[in-house]
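[#protein-structures] MJ: dropping YcaO domain-containing protein here for a structure pass
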Amino acid sequence: MQELFARAASLLLGNAVDAAGDHDARLILQALEYAGESSSGIDAQLANRAHLLIAASRFSRVFELAAPDAPGLISFGAQFDPALADPLHDGSPIVGVSGVGLTLQEAFQGCIGEGVEYLSQLQTGTDLLLKPGVDEWAGKLGPNALELVAALSERRMQPERALSWCRATRLTDGGEVLLPADICLRRPSAQRDCAPPYPLSIGSAAGPSRDAAALHGLLELIERDAASLWWRGGQLPRSIPLQHRAGFVAEELLQKLRHGASAERRTWLLDITTDIGVPCVAAVSCRVDGSGFAFGLAARLALEAAVRSAIMEMCQLELADAVVATKRSERGESALNAQDRIHLQRAAIDAGQCRLLQPVAEYAAHLPLHATEASAIFRLIVQRLEKLGIETFCLDLTRERFAVQVVRVIAPGLQLEPSEIVTTRLQDAVTRTGGGATYTGGIPLI
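AK: finished. C-alpha cells for YcaO domain-containing protein:
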C-alpha cells in the first residue's frame, strides 16, 4: 500500500514515465477524487495533495476504521515512526493518528495531515536552539508570556539546567521574541529541560498554505480555551437559536452519519463561545439512558461550520470509545492506558442529568468576521485577542522533507485544555461560578 501511495503521487504530478499505465495508482486518485488534477498544472493544492500521498507512503500503516454509532463516517488511521523526522528520535514509540470525514478525501487528508503535523513538530538536528545570554529577551514578552516562562522554569527536570529557547514572531507587530523550546518543539526526552504542561498538538496545524495552517492553529487554541472555561471553569453553555441555519446543518449531517446505526444515540449542541466571540461549539451525544457520554469541540469562523466540525469530532470520539471498550473486554483492565481510563471515566457521566451539559436559554454574541482571505481573518482575530490583553506568537514548523505547511501558534493568555497550568482566565471563571467540578465531580474532559 505504501508503494501504491508513492506511485499515485507520481501520477498526480504528471510523471508519466514513473506511473504510465498504472491502473492501481489511478484507482487511488479516483477514490480520493484527485483524478484529472494534473491536467491544469501543478498548483498549490495539487502539490499539497501529492505531498500528503508521499507522506502516506512513508508511514508504517494506513488503514480504514468503521464507526458502529456513525456508519456514515469515513475514518482513517495511520501509524508511523517518529524517526521519519530525524534520527534524533530513533527508538521512540510508534505514533498513531486519525482523520474523519464524509468522503475518503476528507478523512485521508485529515489523517495524513495530522501525521505530517506531528512529524513537523519534532526537533531535528538542524533546529537552532538558543541559550541564555541573548540581550533583553524578557523585555520583549508580555505578562502572560512571562508567567508561562516562570511556570516552565519551576518545572525544570534539573533546576541548575538553563532553558533552551526558540525564535518566534510576535503577531501584533511582527517582532522577534524567544520562547522556551519545550513548548515550541517535540524534543527527545533526554534533551528536554522540562515536560510540556499541555499536549503540544494544541495550536499546531498543517494546511495547504501557511495562512490556512496558522488560522487553523489559532482556532484550536480558542476552542480549547472555551472548552476549559466551560468544563473546568463552570461557565454554563448557551443554546443555538432554533431557526439558525446551524441547526439545519446539524440535522442533515446527523442523518447522513447515523443512518444504519445499530443503536440509537441522543445528540445535541452547546454554544460555548467566550468573550473572544469566535463561534465555539460542543456537540454532545449519549445513549438513550444517558450513559456513554461523548463530545466534539470546534471553533470556526461561522456557527454552522463550528457545528459541522464539532459533530464530526464527536463521532470520532464515539469510535475511540468503542475501541477502548473492545480493548477492555478482550484484554482486561491491565491493557488500558491512562488515556483509555479517562475515556471510561468521562463516558460514565450521566449526560442527561449533568447540568453542565444542558444549554441555558440564552444566545452568545459572535464576532463578525467579514473577511474572506485566511490571512485577513487571522489578523482580525489576533487584533481581537490583543484588545483582551492576550498576546499571540507564531512559529513556522514547515519541514523541507515533508513540504506541507505547518505552523504553531502560541497564546499564553488563553487557557488550554488539558493543561497543568491554570491561567487567570480559568481562575476568574471558577471564582464566578464555583467551577465545573461541581457538576462533573472533577472528571477530566480530555
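MJ: nice. The two ends are 33 Å apart (CA to CA).
AK: one more thing. The chain is about 40% helix and 15% strand.
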